[in-house]
Amino acid sequence: MNVHPRKKMGLPTQSERYRKLIEISKIVNSTLEIDSLLDLVIETILSAFEAEGCSLVLRQPGTDELYFRSTAGPAKEKIKKFRLKLGEGVAGKVALDGKPLLIADARSDGRVRHDISNDVGVPARSIVCTPLSVDGKLVGSIEVINPRSRAGFDGDDLEFLCAVSDSIALAVRNARLFTQVISEKETLSRLLKLQPTIVGNSETMKNIFSLVNRIVKTDVTVLITGETGTGKNLLARFIHETSHRQHQLFVEVNCAAIPDTLIESELFGHEKGAFTGASYLRKGKFELADNGTLCLDEIGDLTPRAQAKLLRAIEEQRFERIGSNTTLTTDVRILVTTNRDLSQCVREGQFRDDLYYRLNQIQLHLPPLRTRREDIMQLIEHYLDKYNQEFEKSVKAISTPAKNFLLDYDWPGNVRELKNMIKRAVLLCDDDEIKCEHLPLLTRPGREKETVAGPEKFPSLDELEKLHIISALQRAEGMKKKAAELLGISRSTLDRKIEVHKIAL
Ligand SMILES: Nc1ncnc2c1ncn2[C@@H]1O[C@H](COP(=O)(O)OP(=O)(O)O)[C@@H](O)[C@H]1O
Ligand SMILES: [Mg+2]
Fold first, then answer.
1. Which atom of ligand 1 is nearest to the CA of 236?
2. pLDDT band at 33, cuts 50/70/90?
3. Which of 185, 235, 401, 419 is deepest in the core (most CB within 10 A)?
C-alpha cells in the first residue's frame, strides 16, 4: 500500500485536510448560535493542523482594539485576558493589512508578541495567520501556532488556512445576523410580556408598539401627543421600562400642575436661602433623574422663561440649582407629553420653535379611543380582570345592552373614563354580570331594573344630553368652565342647560 508522502513526513494529507474543511463547513451550516459555533470551528482547526494553539481574534466594533473571541489549545483560557491593538503582534498586523502571513520560524521574529506566548506557556516557534473579512470589511484574523510534530508551518498550511477562513467569515457573518435577530426577538417578547399593562390590538396600537420596539436601544427624545386619557403617561413609562435605563429612576414632572414661580426650582432645584421660603436645599427633577428618564408632562404649559432654561439643560446636559453658581451635569433621557398641538403653539408664539424641534425627534400620537374601537373590548376585559382581583369579585359577563352601550359610546375621556367606568361597575355589581344600571350614564332615579328578558328602554336625546352634562361635570371635578370646554359650549349655555335639566351640583 502506498503511503502518502506528506503522511510519511508526519504531515496531514490533503485529503484529510479536505475532510476537515468539509467538517468545518458542516459546522458552520449546522448551528447559528455564535458561541458554540465559533468554539467548535476553532477546535476543529486546531485538530486539522495538529497545532498547539489556535485563536480567532476579532476587532471590537467602533474601536482599534482586538480581543480573543474563540481559542483552542492548552492556553485557551489564559490567552483570553489579552487585548491587542490593531497592527500589534502577528494577529493585529494581519487584521490591519489584510494579508496572510506565514512565519516558518518565529523564535526570533520581531513581529511576534513573545511576551504573550511566553506568559501563557506556549512559546512561539511557528505561526500562520490569515485575515478575516465579512462583507468586504476586515473584522479580525485567525492564527494557528506551533505544529506539534514538525518544526514549522509551510505554504500548504497557509493555503489551507486561507480556505478555512472564508468559511469562518461566513460563520461570523451568519452568527452576527442571527444574534441581531435574537436580540430583536428578545426585546419583542419582553415588550409582549409587558403588554398587559398597556392594552391594544388596533392597527394604531400595533404601529406604536413596533415604533417603540425600534427605539428601545436609543435615548431619542419622544414627544407623545393625544387627548387627555389616551394613555400618554402610561406610554412614557412603558418606553422607560423597555429601555436600557429601566433599572434607573423614571421621574415625572407635571408642568401644568406647578405654578410658574416654582417650575424652575422643581426642574433644577434650589440652594438653601435662594429665595424667600427656600429654607432647605432641594434637588430638582433633572438631578434626581440622572441616568434615568425624565418625563415632562403637559410640556405645552411651560412658561417662556422655563422653556429657555429647559432648552439649555437638554442641549448641554448642564444646569445650575437656583441660587448656585456651580454647574451640574446630568445624563437624562427626556420624554414629553402634551394634549396641545405644539406646532400651533409655536406658530402662535407661545412655544419656542428651537425647543419644539429639539423635543420633536420622534412623535408618537395616541388617537382618541373613539377612533380605535377595536381596543375597547380588550380594555374592558383587561380592567374587569384587574378590578375583579382588586375587589375580590367575580364579575364574569356584561349584559348585551350594557356591552352595546360600552362599544358604541364615544368615550370623550378616553381610556381613563373607560377604566373608571369599569371600576365603578365592578364595585356596584352584586352578581356576576354588569348591567346598564351599573353604568353611570344610563343610571337614572326610578329607572326600571334591567331584566334578562326585557329589552332596555332607549334613552331620549334629552335624557342623554342631561346625562352627558353630568358626566362632563364629573370629569371636570365640578369646574363649570372646564366642563363647558369639554362639551364644546359656552359657560352661559352650560348654566342654562344645568337649570333646564335641573341638575343638582
Ligand atoms: N392602552 C392602555 N391600556 C391600559 N390602560 C390604559 C391604556 N391607555 C390608558 N390607560 C389607563 O388610562 C389612564 C389614563 O392614562 P394616562 O397615561 O394617564 O393618560 P394621559 O396621560 O394621556 O392623560 C391610566 O390609568 C392608564 O393606566
Ligand atoms: Mg397625562
1. 17
2. low
3. 235
**Ligand 1, CB within 6 Å, residue ranges:** 198-200, 226, 228-234, 337, 379, 415-416, 419
Instruction: Sort 149 into a burial class: Cβ within 10 Å, 0-12 / 13-18 / 19+.
Output: exposed
* pLDDT tens digits, one per residue of 10-26: 555 666 666 666 666 66
pLDDT at res. 448: 37
pLDDT band at 223 (very low <50, low <70, confident <90, very high): very high
Give the three cell numbers for residue 188.
Answer: 419583542
Q: What CATH number does domain 198-273+286-367 carry, 3.40.50.2300, 2.40.50.1070, 3.40.50.620, 3.40.50.300?
A: 3.40.50.300
Q: Is 152 exposed, middle or buried (0-12, 13-18, 19+ CB in 10 A)?
A: middle
pTM above 0.85, yes or no: no
Q: Please say if the pLDDT value at position 474 is more than 80.
A: no
Ordered alpha helix ranges (H), 216-320: 232-242, 260-268, 285-288, 304-316
Report pLDDT for 457: 53
Asked if pLDDT for residue 126 goes beyond 90, the answer is yes
In angstroms, rounded to a whole number, what is the distance separating the alpha carbons of residues 56 and 72? 9
Cα(258) to ligand 2 centroid in Å equals 14
- Tell me the per-residue pLDDT of 407-417, one tens digit each, with 9 for 90 and over: 989 999 999 99
What CATH class has 376-456? mainly alpha
The lowest-confidence range among 135-144, 186-195, 204-213 is 186-195
Q: Which ligand is nearest to the CA of 236?
A: 1
Spatial contact of 262 and 303, defined as CB atoms under 8 Å apart: no
Q: Topology of domain 459-505, per CATH?
A: Arc Repressor Mutant, subunit A (1.10.10)
With CA atoms as reference, report the closest residue to 276 among 325, 309, 322. 322
Atom of ligand 1 nearest to the CA of 228: 23
